[in-house]
Amino acid sequence: MSTREALAVATCVIVFGGCAGTAPRETPNLGRAATQAEIAGWDISIAPDGRGLPRGAGTPADGALVYAQKCQVCHGDKGVGGPNDRLVGGQGTLASKTPVRTIGSYWPYATTVFDYVRRSMPFFQPHSLTDSEVYAVTAYLLSLNGIIGEQDVMNAETLPKVKMPNRDNFILVQPWKPRVQ
Amino acid sequence: MVYAPSDASAASPPETPSGMTTPGAPLSPYGSPATFEREVTRTLIRSQPGTTGAGASRTPLEALEGMITPSGLHFERHHNGVPTIDPAQHQLLIHGLVARPLIFTVASLQRYPMESRIHFLECSGNSALMYGATPPTLTCGQTHGLVSCSEWTGVPLRLLLEEAGVDPRADWVLAEGADAAAMSRSVPMAKAMDDAMLALYQNGERLRPENGYPVRLFLPGYEGNMSVKWLRRIKVTDTPTMTKDETSKYTDLRADGKSLMFTYPMEVKSVITRPAPGLTMTGPGLYELSGIAWSGRGKIRKVEVSADGGQTWAEAALAAPVLAYALTRFRIAWKWNGAPTVLKSRATDDAGRVQPTRDELIAQQGANVVYHYHAIQAWRVESTGEVKNVYA
Question: Would an 8 Å CB–CB cutoff place B99 in contact with chain A?
Protein backbone atom coordinates (compact mmCIF):
# COMPACT_ATOMS: atom_id res chain seq x y z
CA MET A 1 0.00 0.00 0.00
CA SER A 2 1.41 3.38 -0.91
CA THR A 3 1.61 6.18 1.60
CA ARG A 4 -1.10 7.98 -0.31
CA GLU A 5 -3.46 4.99 -0.08
CA ALA A 6 -2.68 4.44 3.59
CA LEU A 7 -3.46 8.02 4.50
CA ALA A 8 -6.59 8.12 2.37
CA VAL A 9 -8.45 6.17 5.00
CA ALA A 10 -7.55 8.67 7.65
CA THR A 11 -8.36 11.58 5.33
CA CYS A 12 -11.85 10.25 4.79
CA VAL A 13 -12.39 10.13 8.51
CA ILE A 14 -10.90 13.53 9.18
CA VAL A 15 -12.37 15.50 6.30
CA PHE A 16 -15.65 13.68 5.89
CA GLY A 17 -16.34 12.72 9.48
CA GLY A 18 -19.90 11.91 8.50
CA CYS A 19 -18.80 9.04 6.28
CA ALA A 20 -18.55 6.87 9.38
CA GLY A 21 -22.30 7.18 9.75
CA THR A 22 -23.11 5.72 6.37
CA ALA A 23 -20.45 3.06 6.02
CA PRO A 24 -18.62 1.20 8.76
CA ARG A 25 -15.40 2.99 9.51
CA GLU A 26 -12.28 0.90 9.04
CA THR A 27 -11.03 0.08 12.53
CA PRO A 28 -7.89 -1.73 13.73
CA ASN A 29 -9.59 -5.00 14.75
CA LEU A 30 -7.18 -5.63 17.59
CA GLY A 31 -9.57 -7.58 19.81
CA ARG A 32 -8.61 -11.17 20.51
CA ALA A 33 -11.38 -13.78 20.30
CA ALA A 34 -12.59 -14.59 23.82
CA THR A 35 -13.12 -18.28 24.57
CA GLN A 36 -16.23 -19.55 26.32
CA ALA A 37 -14.07 -20.58 29.28
CA GLU A 38 -12.67 -17.06 29.56
CA ILE A 39 -16.13 -15.54 29.38
CA ALA A 40 -17.48 -17.98 31.97
CA GLY A 41 -14.66 -16.97 34.30
CA TRP A 42 -15.49 -13.28 34.08
CA ASP A 43 -19.25 -13.18 33.61
CA ILE A 44 -20.60 -12.75 37.15
CA SER A 45 -23.71 -10.65 36.43
CA ILE A 46 -27.19 -12.02 37.00
CA ALA A 47 -30.20 -10.96 34.92
CA PRO A 48 -33.48 -10.25 36.74
CA ASP A 49 -34.98 -13.39 35.18
CA GLY A 50 -32.19 -15.47 36.72
CA ARG A 51 -29.99 -15.95 33.68
CA GLY A 52 -26.43 -16.32 34.90
CA LEU A 53 -27.27 -17.87 38.27
CA PRO A 54 -24.78 -20.62 39.08
CA ARG A 55 -25.30 -24.06 40.55
CA GLY A 56 -25.47 -24.36 44.30
CA ALA A 57 -28.17 -23.82 46.91
CA GLY A 58 -28.72 -22.52 50.41
CA THR A 59 -31.37 -22.21 53.10
CA PRO A 60 -32.05 -19.42 55.61
CA ALA A 61 -30.59 -21.61 58.36
CA ASP A 62 -27.36 -22.08 56.39
CA GLY A 63 -27.32 -18.36 55.73
CA ALA A 64 -27.72 -17.42 59.38
CA LEU A 65 -24.38 -19.12 60.12
CA VAL A 66 -22.59 -17.33 57.28
CA TYR A 67 -24.24 -14.03 58.22
CA ALA A 68 -23.12 -14.26 61.86
CA GLN A 69 -19.51 -14.75 60.78
CA LYS A 70 -19.24 -12.49 57.75
CA CYS A 71 -21.99 -9.86 57.71
CA GLN A 72 -23.29 -9.09 61.18
CA VAL A 73 -20.41 -6.88 62.32
CA CYS A 74 -21.35 -4.29 59.67
CA HIS A 75 -25.08 -4.90 59.17
CA GLY A 76 -26.20 -5.78 62.70
CA ASP A 77 -28.07 -8.62 64.32
CA LYS A 78 -30.70 -9.92 61.90
CA GLY A 79 -29.93 -7.12 59.44
CA VAL A 80 -30.76 -4.19 61.74
CA GLY A 81 -28.74 -1.87 63.97
CA GLY A 82 -25.26 -2.21 62.45
CA PRO A 83 -23.04 0.70 61.46
CA ASN A 84 -23.69 0.10 57.74
CA ASP A 85 -26.76 -0.32 55.55
CA ARG A 86 -29.87 -1.73 57.21
CA LEU A 87 -31.00 -4.83 55.32
CA VAL A 88 -34.27 -5.83 56.98
CA GLY A 89 -37.64 -4.19 57.69
CA GLY A 90 -39.06 -0.86 56.62
CA GLN A 91 -41.98 -2.30 54.69
CA GLY A 92 -44.82 0.21 54.59
CA THR A 93 -42.58 3.25 55.24
CA LEU A 94 -41.73 4.35 51.70
CA ALA A 95 -44.54 6.89 51.41
CA SER A 96 -43.84 8.36 54.85
CA LYS A 97 -41.57 11.25 55.76
CA THR A 98 -38.99 8.81 57.13
CA PRO A 99 -38.72 6.03 54.55
CA VAL A 100 -36.59 3.04 55.49
CA ARG A 101 -35.08 1.51 52.37
CA THR A 102 -33.97 -2.10 52.85
CA ILE A 103 -33.83 -5.24 50.76
CA GLY A 104 -37.29 -6.09 52.04
CA SER A 105 -38.92 -2.72 51.66
CA TYR A 106 -37.24 -1.40 48.52
CA TRP A 107 -35.27 -3.79 46.32
CA PRO A 108 -37.32 -4.85 43.26
CA TYR A 109 -35.46 -8.07 42.32
CA ALA A 110 -34.25 -10.94 44.49
CA THR A 111 -31.61 -11.78 41.88
CA THR A 112 -29.92 -8.47 42.68
CA VAL A 113 -29.26 -9.62 46.23
CA PHE A 114 -27.35 -12.65 44.98
CA ASP A 115 -25.50 -10.60 42.34
CA TYR A 116 -24.48 -7.87 44.76
CA VAL A 117 -23.40 -10.13 47.62
CA ARG A 118 -21.35 -12.28 45.28
CA ARG A 119 -19.62 -9.39 43.53
CA SER A 120 -18.88 -7.10 46.46
CA MET A 121 -19.49 -8.69 49.86
CA PRO A 122 -18.16 -9.17 52.48
CA PHE A 123 -16.84 -5.63 52.12
CA PHE A 124 -13.28 -6.51 53.14
CA GLN A 125 -13.20 -9.89 51.35
CA PRO A 126 -15.32 -9.70 48.20
CA HIS A 127 -15.39 -12.88 46.06
CA SER A 128 -14.55 -15.01 49.11
CA LEU A 129 -17.93 -16.77 49.57
CA THR A 130 -18.88 -19.92 47.69
CA ASP A 131 -21.93 -19.74 45.45
CA SER A 132 -23.88 -21.87 47.94
CA GLU A 133 -22.91 -19.52 50.74
CA VAL A 134 -24.20 -16.60 48.64
CA TYR A 135 -27.47 -18.45 48.04
CA ALA A 136 -27.69 -19.11 51.78
CA VAL A 137 -27.10 -15.49 52.80
CA THR A 138 -29.61 -14.38 50.18
CA ALA A 139 -32.14 -16.87 51.55
CA TYR A 140 -31.50 -15.67 55.12
CA LEU A 141 -32.05 -12.02 54.20
CA LEU A 142 -35.20 -12.81 52.24
CA SER A 143 -36.48 -14.88 55.15
CA LEU A 144 -35.73 -12.18 57.74
CA ASN A 145 -37.77 -9.82 55.57
CA GLY A 146 -40.68 -12.27 55.54
CA ILE A 147 -40.47 -12.73 51.78
CA ILE A 148 -39.70 -16.48 51.79
CA GLY A 149 -40.29 -19.16 54.39
CA GLU A 150 -37.71 -20.33 56.90
CA GLN A 151 -37.43 -23.71 55.15
CA ASP A 152 -37.28 -22.42 51.57
CA VAL A 153 -34.23 -23.37 49.51
CA MET A 154 -32.78 -20.73 47.23
CA ASN A 155 -31.11 -21.89 44.02
CA ALA A 156 -31.07 -21.00 40.32
CA GLU A 157 -34.66 -22.25 39.94
CA THR A 158 -36.31 -20.74 43.00
CA LEU A 159 -34.57 -17.37 43.42
CA PRO A 160 -35.87 -15.72 40.21
CA LYS A 161 -39.42 -16.74 41.16
CA VAL A 162 -39.31 -14.73 44.39
CA LYS A 163 -41.50 -11.65 43.96
CA MET A 164 -40.16 -8.72 45.94
CA PRO A 165 -42.83 -6.62 47.73
CA ASN A 166 -41.77 -3.33 46.12
CA ARG A 167 -41.36 -4.81 42.64
CA ASP A 168 -44.22 -2.90 40.99
CA ASN A 169 -43.47 0.49 42.51
CA PHE A 170 -40.74 1.52 40.10
CA ILE A 171 -41.48 3.83 37.18
CA LEU A 172 -39.05 3.41 34.32
CA VAL A 173 -38.43 6.86 32.85
CA GLN A 174 -35.85 5.72 30.35
CA PRO A 175 -37.67 4.98 27.10
CA TRP A 176 -37.32 1.23 27.28
CA LYS A 177 -39.94 -1.40 26.66
CA PRO A 178 -39.22 -5.03 27.36
CA ARG A 179 -39.61 -7.04 24.19
CA VAL A 180 -41.22 -9.88 26.10
CA GLN A 181 -43.09 -9.12 29.30
CA MET B 1 -10.13 32.30 52.27
CA VAL B 2 -11.00 35.84 51.34
CA TYR B 3 -12.75 36.74 48.11
CA ALA B 4 -9.97 39.14 46.98
CA PRO B 5 -6.82 39.44 49.08
CA SER B 6 -6.01 42.82 50.52
CA ASP B 7 -2.72 44.32 49.32
CA ALA B 8 -1.92 45.87 52.71
CA SER B 9 0.86 43.37 53.43
CA ALA B 10 2.35 43.27 49.93
CA ALA B 11 5.92 44.33 49.38
CA SER B 12 5.87 47.91 48.14
CA PRO B 13 8.38 49.65 45.90
CA PRO B 14 11.25 50.24 46.11
CA GLU B 15 11.77 46.96 48.01
CA THR B 16 13.22 44.16 45.86
CA PRO B 17 11.47 40.77 46.48
CA SER B 18 13.79 37.96 47.53
CA GLY B 19 12.89 35.93 44.46
CA MET B 20 14.71 38.52 42.37
CA THR B 21 17.91 38.42 44.38
CA THR B 22 18.60 34.66 44.50
CA PRO B 23 18.26 31.86 41.94
CA GLY B 24 14.89 30.16 42.01
CA ALA B 25 13.94 26.52 42.64
CA PRO B 26 15.30 23.86 40.25
CA LEU B 27 13.43 22.18 37.40
CA SER B 28 11.12 19.34 38.39
CA PRO B 29 9.91 16.19 36.61
CA TYR B 30 6.25 16.72 37.49
CA GLY B 31 4.81 20.02 38.65
CA SER B 32 2.77 20.68 41.75
CA PRO B 33 0.54 23.56 42.84
CA ALA B 34 2.22 26.49 44.58
CA THR B 35 2.95 25.75 48.22
CA PHE B 36 0.79 28.76 49.09
CA GLU B 37 -2.22 26.92 47.61
CA ARG B 38 -1.94 23.94 49.99
CA GLU B 39 -5.36 24.60 51.47
CA VAL B 40 -7.02 24.19 48.07
CA THR B 41 -7.89 20.52 48.44
CA ARG B 42 -10.77 18.12 48.05
CA THR B 43 -12.94 17.59 51.12
CA LEU B 44 -13.14 13.92 52.04
CA ILE B 45 -16.47 12.56 53.20
CA ARG B 46 -16.67 8.85 53.90
CA SER B 47 -20.14 7.40 53.52
CA GLN B 48 -19.68 3.98 55.06
CA PRO B 49 -18.53 3.79 58.71
CA GLY B 50 -15.53 1.56 59.26
CA THR B 51 -14.29 1.85 55.69
CA THR B 52 -11.66 4.03 54.04
CA GLY B 53 -12.43 3.77 50.34
CA ALA B 54 -16.21 4.07 50.21
CA GLY B 55 -17.46 7.63 50.00
CA ALA B 56 -16.71 10.82 48.15
CA SER B 57 -14.32 13.73 48.02
CA ARG B 58 -15.53 17.09 46.77
CA THR B 59 -14.01 19.67 44.44
CA PRO B 60 -13.29 23.07 46.12
CA LEU B 61 -15.40 24.99 43.62
CA GLU B 62 -14.99 28.35 45.39
CA ALA B 63 -11.22 28.23 44.88
CA LEU B 64 -11.30 27.51 41.14
CA GLU B 65 -11.93 29.50 37.94
CA GLY B 66 -12.59 28.71 34.30
CA MET B 67 -14.29 25.54 33.03
CA ILE B 68 -11.62 22.85 33.60
CA THR B 69 -11.13 21.14 36.95
CA PRO B 70 -7.51 20.24 37.72
CA SER B 71 -7.23 16.43 37.61
CA GLY B 72 -5.98 16.27 41.19
CA LEU B 73 -9.07 18.15 42.38
CA HIS B 74 -11.64 16.21 40.33
CA PHE B 75 -14.25 14.86 42.73
CA GLU B 76 -14.14 11.19 43.72
CA ARG B 77 -16.92 8.73 44.42
CA HIS B 78 -15.84 5.17 45.07
CA HIS B 79 -17.88 2.25 46.34
CA ASN B 80 -14.93 0.27 47.73
CA GLY B 81 -11.70 2.14 47.14
CA VAL B 82 -9.32 2.76 44.27
CA PRO B 83 -7.78 -0.40 42.80
CA THR B 84 -4.14 -0.44 41.74
CA ILE B 85 -4.17 -1.67 38.16
CA ASP B 86 -1.10 -2.39 36.02
CA PRO B 87 -2.19 -1.46 32.49
CA ALA B 88 -0.05 -4.28 31.12
CA GLN B 89 -2.23 -6.74 33.06
CA HIS B 90 -5.62 -5.12 32.45
CA GLN B 91 -8.02 -6.40 29.80
CA LEU B 92 -11.49 -5.45 28.60
CA LEU B 93 -13.95 -8.18 27.60
CA ILE B 94 -16.86 -7.42 25.27
CA HIS B 95 -19.34 -10.29 25.13
CA GLY B 96 -22.99 -11.25 25.43
CA LEU B 97 -25.27 -10.65 22.44
CA VAL B 98 -22.43 -10.17 19.97
CA ALA B 99 -21.22 -12.20 17.00
CA ARG B 100 -17.59 -12.11 18.14
CA PRO B 101 -16.73 -11.88 21.85
CA LEU B 102 -13.48 -9.94 22.05
CA ILE B 103 -10.77 -9.18 24.60
CA PHE B 104 -8.82 -5.94 24.29
CA THR B 105 -5.59 -5.01 26.00
CA VAL B 106 -5.04 -1.42 27.04
CA ALA B 107 -2.21 -1.12 24.54
CA SER B 108 -4.54 -2.24 21.75
CA LEU B 109 -7.15 0.36 22.75
CA GLN B 110 -4.51 3.06 22.33
CA ARG B 111 -4.27 2.24 18.63
CA TYR B 112 -7.94 3.03 17.96
CA PRO B 113 -9.22 6.34 16.56
CA MET B 114 -9.79 8.70 19.48
CA GLU B 115 -11.96 11.67 20.27
CA SER B 116 -11.33 14.50 22.72
CA ARG B 117 -14.27 16.19 24.38
CA ILE B 118 -14.72 18.55 27.30
CA HIS B 119 -17.46 17.23 29.59
CA PHE B 120 -18.60 17.65 33.14
CA LEU B 121 -19.09 14.67 35.40
CA GLU B 122 -21.56 15.06 38.25
CA CYS B 123 -22.42 12.54 40.94
CA SER B 124 -26.18 12.09 41.07
CA GLY B 125 -25.93 12.70 44.83
CA ASN B 126 -24.33 16.13 44.37
CA SER B 127 -25.94 18.82 46.55
CA ALA B 128 -28.09 16.16 48.27
CA LEU B 129 -27.73 17.97 51.61
CA MET B 130 -29.89 20.72 50.10
CA TYR B 131 -32.90 18.39 50.37
CA GLY B 132 -32.52 18.66 54.17
CA ALA B 133 -34.72 20.77 56.42
CA THR B 134 -31.93 23.26 57.16
CA PRO B 135 -29.26 24.51 54.79
CA PRO B 136 -25.81 22.95 55.31
CA THR B 137 -23.21 25.24 56.91
CA LEU B 138 -20.46 24.09 54.56
CA THR B 139 -18.37 25.68 51.82
CA CYS B 140 -19.68 25.86 48.27
CA GLY B 141 -17.49 22.95 47.23
CA GLN B 142 -18.42 20.81 50.21
CA THR B 143 -22.09 21.22 49.27
CA HIS B 144 -21.94 21.26 45.45
CA GLY B 145 -18.46 19.92 44.64
CA LEU B 146 -19.47 16.49 43.33
CA VAL B 147 -19.19 18.04 39.88
CA SER B 148 -16.00 18.53 37.90
CA CYS B 149 -15.09 19.10 34.24
CA SER B 150 -12.24 17.66 32.20
CA GLU B 151 -11.11 17.11 28.67
CA TRP B 152 -11.60 13.38 28.14
CA THR B 153 -9.84 11.54 25.33
CA GLY B 154 -10.58 8.01 24.30
CA VAL B 155 -12.12 5.54 21.90
CA PRO B 156 -15.80 5.71 20.94
CA LEU B 157 -17.41 2.59 22.43
CA ARG B 158 -19.38 2.28 19.19
CA LEU B 159 -16.23 1.29 17.27
CA LEU B 160 -15.55 -1.70 19.52
CA LEU B 161 -19.19 -2.77 19.59
CA GLU B 162 -19.23 -2.70 15.79
CA GLU B 163 -16.16 -4.90 15.68
CA ALA B 164 -17.83 -7.35 18.04
CA GLY B 165 -21.03 -7.31 15.94
CA VAL B 166 -24.06 -6.39 18.02
CA ASP B 167 -27.03 -8.77 17.80
CA PRO B 168 -30.29 -7.07 16.72
CA ARG B 169 -31.96 -8.32 19.94
CA ALA B 170 -29.59 -6.24 22.04
CA ASP B 171 -30.98 -3.15 23.81
CA TRP B 172 -28.51 -2.64 26.66
CA VAL B 173 -24.91 -3.01 27.69
CA LEU B 174 -23.74 -3.82 31.20
CA ALA B 175 -20.54 -2.02 32.21
CA GLU B 176 -18.50 -3.51 35.05
CA GLY B 177 -15.45 -2.18 36.88
CA ALA B 178 -12.39 -4.00 38.20
CA ASP B 179 -12.72 -2.53 41.69
CA ALA B 180 -13.60 -4.29 44.96
CA ALA B 181 -17.24 -3.24 44.47
CA ALA B 182 -17.24 -4.63 40.90
CA MET B 183 -19.34 -1.53 40.20
CA SER B 184 -21.85 -2.31 37.49
CA ARG B 185 -24.52 -0.35 35.61
CA SER B 186 -26.76 -1.01 32.63
CA VAL B 187 -26.53 1.51 29.79
CA PRO B 188 -29.09 1.86 26.99
CA MET B 189 -27.71 0.67 23.65
CA ALA B 190 -28.68 3.99 22.05
CA LYS B 191 -26.29 5.81 24.39
CA ALA B 192 -23.58 3.19 23.93
CA MET B 193 -23.74 3.64 20.16
CA ASP B 194 -24.02 7.42 20.33
CA ASP B 195 -21.48 9.34 22.40
CA ALA B 196 -20.22 6.77 24.93
CA MET B 197 -16.44 6.80 25.18
CA LEU B 198 -13.79 4.51 26.61
CA ALA B 199 -11.71 7.28 28.16
CA LEU B 200 -7.96 6.77 28.48
CA TYR B 201 -6.82 10.36 29.02
CA GLN B 202 -7.98 13.17 31.31
CA ASN B 203 -6.76 16.71 30.66
CA GLY B 204 -4.06 15.41 28.36
CA GLU B 205 -2.50 12.81 30.64
CA ARG B 206 -3.51 9.25 31.36
CA LEU B 207 -6.44 8.94 33.72
CA ARG B 208 -5.73 9.42 37.40
CA PRO B 209 -6.18 6.17 39.39
CA GLU B 210 -9.17 7.66 41.20
CA ASN B 211 -10.76 8.42 37.85
CA GLY B 212 -10.58 4.91 36.48
CA TYR B 213 -7.02 4.24 35.35
CA PRO B 214 -6.30 2.70 32.92
CA VAL B 215 -9.71 2.91 31.18
CA ARG B 216 -13.16 4.10 32.17
CA LEU B 217 -16.50 4.39 30.50
CA PHE B 218 -17.64 7.98 29.98
CA LEU B 219 -21.29 8.83 29.31
CA PRO B 220 -21.71 12.57 28.60
CA GLY B 221 -24.48 14.22 30.60
CA TYR B 222 -25.44 11.11 32.57
CA GLU B 223 -25.23 10.68 36.35
CA GLY B 224 -21.62 10.06 37.26
CA ASN B 225 -21.77 6.53 38.63
CA MET B 226 -22.79 5.18 35.21
CA SER B 227 -19.41 6.19 33.79
CA VAL B 228 -17.94 3.03 35.26
CA LYS B 229 -14.28 3.33 36.24
CA TRP B 230 -11.56 0.66 35.86
CA LEU B 231 -13.72 -0.84 33.11
CA ARG B 232 -13.09 -4.53 32.54
CA ARG B 233 -16.28 -5.93 31.05
CA ILE B 234 -19.01 -4.88 28.65
CA LYS B 235 -21.83 -7.38 28.34
CA VAL B 236 -24.35 -6.77 25.57
CA THR B 237 -27.81 -7.73 26.83
CA ASP B 238 -31.48 -7.63 25.88
CA THR B 239 -32.69 -6.24 29.24
CA PRO B 240 -31.24 -4.09 31.99
CA THR B 241 -29.34 -6.27 34.46
CA MET B 242 -31.00 -4.51 37.43
CA THR B 243 -27.81 -4.21 39.43
CA LYS B 244 -27.74 -2.96 43.01
CA ASP B 245 -26.71 0.51 41.86
CA GLU B 246 -29.68 0.93 39.51
CA THR B 247 -32.31 -0.49 41.86
CA SER B 248 -31.53 -0.09 45.58
CA LYS B 249 -29.40 3.02 44.93
CA TYR B 250 -29.57 5.77 42.30
CA THR B 251 -33.35 5.52 42.04
CA ASP B 252 -35.55 8.42 43.09
CA LEU B 253 -38.14 7.73 45.81
CA ARG B 254 -41.11 10.08 45.46
CA ALA B 255 -43.47 11.24 48.18
CA ASP B 256 -46.12 8.71 47.08
CA GLY B 257 -43.76 5.80 47.74
CA LYS B 258 -43.13 5.03 44.07
CA SER B 259 -39.65 5.43 42.65
CA LEU B 260 -38.30 6.70 39.37
CA MET B 261 -35.77 4.35 37.81
CA PHE B 262 -33.21 5.10 35.08
CA THR B 263 -33.16 8.87 35.64
CA TYR B 264 -29.94 9.32 33.70
CA PRO B 265 -29.37 12.95 32.60
CA MET B 266 -28.21 15.45 35.20
CA GLU B 267 -30.60 18.38 34.98
CA VAL B 268 -29.84 22.04 34.25
CA LYS B 269 -28.04 23.64 37.18
CA SER B 270 -25.83 26.53 38.22
CA VAL B 271 -24.10 27.88 41.29
CA ILE B 272 -22.25 31.08 42.06
CA THR B 273 -18.74 30.12 43.16
CA ARG B 274 -17.46 33.67 43.94
CA PRO B 275 -18.66 34.89 46.32
CA ALA B 276 -19.78 31.74 48.08
CA PRO B 277 -19.50 30.09 51.49
CA GLY B 278 -15.80 29.53 52.09
CA LEU B 279 -14.92 33.00 50.83
CA THR B 280 -15.30 36.26 52.75
CA MET B 281 -16.10 39.57 51.05
CA THR B 282 -13.59 42.36 51.63
CA GLY B 283 -15.86 45.38 51.96
CA PRO B 284 -18.20 47.31 49.67
CA GLY B 285 -17.25 48.08 46.09
CA LEU B 286 -17.12 46.56 42.65
CA TYR B 287 -16.91 42.75 42.41
CA GLU B 288 -17.21 40.21 39.66
CA LEU B 289 -19.68 37.44 40.41
CA SER B 290 -18.47 34.18 38.90
CA GLY B 291 -20.06 30.77 38.71
CA ILE B 292 -20.59 27.57 36.79
CA ALA B 293 -23.61 26.28 34.91
CA TRP B 294 -24.21 22.95 33.22
CA SER B 295 -26.88 20.63 31.85
CA GLY B 296 -26.92 16.93 31.11
CA ARG B 297 -29.36 17.68 28.31
CA GLY B 298 -27.17 19.95 26.19
CA LYS B 299 -25.62 23.40 26.23
CA ILE B 300 -26.24 26.30 28.55
CA ARG B 301 -28.23 28.98 26.77
CA LYS B 302 -28.23 31.66 29.47
CA VAL B 303 -27.57 32.29 33.13
CA GLU B 304 -29.43 35.01 35.00
CA VAL B 305 -28.13 36.40 38.26
CA SER B 306 -30.03 38.20 41.00
CA ALA B 307 -28.37 40.36 43.67
CA ASP B 308 -31.63 41.16 45.47
CA GLY B 309 -32.93 37.75 46.48
CA GLY B 310 -34.66 37.07 43.17
CA GLN B 311 -36.72 40.25 42.73
CA THR B 312 -34.75 41.34 39.66
CA TRP B 313 -32.44 39.41 37.37
CA ALA B 314 -29.64 40.31 34.94
CA GLU B 315 -28.09 38.09 32.30
CA ALA B 316 -24.50 37.09 32.95
CA ALA B 317 -21.81 36.80 30.26
CA LEU B 318 -20.99 33.20 29.29
CA ALA B 319 -17.29 32.51 28.82
CA ALA B 320 -16.42 30.79 25.54
CA PRO B 321 -16.43 28.00 24.66
CA VAL B 322 -19.99 27.06 25.60
CA LEU B 323 -20.11 23.30 25.02
CA ALA B 324 -22.74 20.60 25.40
CA TYR B 325 -22.41 18.61 28.63
CA ALA B 326 -19.61 20.88 29.85
CA LEU B 327 -19.29 23.35 32.68
CA THR B 328 -19.93 26.86 31.40
CA ARG B 329 -18.34 29.72 33.30
CA PHE B 330 -20.54 32.78 33.77
CA ARG B 331 -19.51 36.18 35.09
CA ILE B 332 -21.17 39.50 35.80
CA ALA B 333 -20.08 42.71 37.49
CA TRP B 334 -21.71 43.58 40.83
CA LYS B 335 -21.39 46.73 42.88
CA TRP B 336 -21.96 45.77 46.51
CA ASN B 337 -23.14 48.59 48.78
CA GLY B 338 -22.20 46.65 51.90
CA ALA B 339 -25.77 45.88 52.97
CA PRO B 340 -26.91 42.29 53.56
CA THR B 341 -28.43 40.73 50.47
CA VAL B 342 -29.08 37.39 48.77
CA LEU B 343 -27.38 36.28 45.54
CA LYS B 344 -28.90 33.72 43.17
CA SER B 345 -28.17 32.27 39.74
CA ARG B 346 -30.66 30.62 37.38
CA ALA B 347 -29.56 28.63 34.35
CA THR B 348 -31.49 27.80 31.18
CA ASP B 349 -30.26 25.13 28.77
CA ASP B 350 -30.73 24.89 25.01
CA ALA B 351 -33.58 22.44 25.53
CA GLY B 352 -35.37 25.35 27.23
CA ARG B 353 -35.23 23.77 30.67
CA VAL B 354 -34.98 26.32 33.47
CA GLN B 355 -33.46 25.64 36.87
CA PRO B 356 -36.33 25.40 39.40
CA THR B 357 -36.50 26.93 42.85
CA ARG B 358 -35.94 24.61 45.78
CA ASP B 359 -39.63 24.78 46.67
CA GLU B 360 -40.62 23.92 43.11
CA LEU B 361 -38.21 20.97 42.98
CA ILE B 362 -39.44 19.50 46.26
CA ALA B 363 -43.08 20.13 45.36
CA GLN B 364 -42.49 18.26 42.12
CA GLN B 365 -40.68 15.19 43.47
CA GLY B 366 -40.98 15.23 47.26
CA ALA B 367 -38.26 15.51 49.88
CA ASN B 368 -37.39 11.80 50.09
CA VAL B 369 -35.29 11.93 46.94
CA VAL B 370 -31.56 11.70 47.53
CA TYR B 371 -30.36 12.36 44.00
CA HIS B 372 -30.53 14.87 41.15
CA TYR B 373 -30.82 18.02 43.28
CA HIS B 374 -30.52 20.98 40.90
CA ALA B 375 -32.46 23.90 42.37
CA ILE B 376 -31.48 27.56 42.34
CA GLN B 377 -28.88 28.23 45.05
CA ALA B 378 -29.19 31.28 47.31
CA TRP B 379 -26.15 32.75 49.08
CA ARG B 380 -26.76 35.37 51.77
CA VAL B 381 -24.05 38.02 51.98
CA GLU B 382 -23.85 39.52 55.48
CA SER B 383 -22.68 43.08 56.13
CA THR B 384 -19.57 41.51 57.69
CA GLY B 385 -18.71 40.01 54.32
CA GLU B 386 -19.53 36.47 55.44
CA VAL B 387 -21.39 34.38 52.86
CA LYS B 388 -23.96 31.82 54.02
CA ASN B 389 -26.08 29.11 52.46
CA VAL B 390 -29.77 29.99 52.91
CA TYR B 391 -33.13 28.74 51.75
CA ALA B 392 -34.58 31.89 50.24
Answer: no
